[in-house]
Write a structure and sequence with these properties.
Strand order of the largest sheet: 1-2-3-4-5
Number of helices: 1
Number of domains: 1
Radius of gyration: 31 Å
Strand content: 35-45%
Shape: rod-shaped
Largest sheet: 5 strands, antiparallel
Order of helices and strands: HEEEEEEEE
Distance between the termini: 108 Å
Helix content: 25-40%
Length: about 150
């Protein structure tokens, strides 16, 4: 006993507590950084998947509009389609969106955004479509052409 105080050896010193808190804070920082990077990567992967799905859906939409086909005019960057219901043009607009422009209702429907390159060509009653978006996704497809 020193000056009337009992010598207690059961607790932690101030230096040990500060060192433990420092290590805990460093671990929390590393874990939170890992979690935030994982969330960022997850969002980017989902964005790319969504844009790829828009490419696939745009092909399905074009294929649906080729049903009951009366006339088709294919150039390298656009397709003009005339079916029993409507007359339309599939092309890129000024914002690099793949769109269908309907002549009858003066309406433009966006199929996919951020398109880098679009090309069409016709050979042996097949319409070949190549669409590439700015994230690197690409779809190449052929659709049979059956004119009534």
């Amino acid at each position: 006993m020193v000056n009337g105080l009992k010598d207690n050896k059961n607790g932690f010193t101030l230096v040990e507590i500060i060192a433990g808190m420092s290590l805990t804070l460093m671990l929390l920082f590393l874990m939170s950084s890992f979690i935030f990077n994982t969330i960022k990567c997850y969002k980017k992967v989902n964005e790319v998947k969504l844009e790829d799905e828009y490419l696939r859906q745009s092909i399905i939409c074009i294929q649906k509009n080729l049903e009951n086909l009366k006339e088709i005019n294919v150039s390298e960057k656009q397709v003009e389609i005339k079916n029993l219901k409507n007359q339309m043009k599939v092309a890129l607009n000024s914002s690099d969106d793949l769109v269908i422009k309907y002549n009858r209702v003066k309406k433009e429907e966006i199929l996919a955004r951020n398109i880098e390159d679009l090309s069409f060509y016709e050979k042996n009653n097949l319409l070949y479509i190549n669409i590439k978006n700015k994230n690197g996704g690409e779809i190449m497809w052929s659709i049979p052409i059956n004119i009534l």
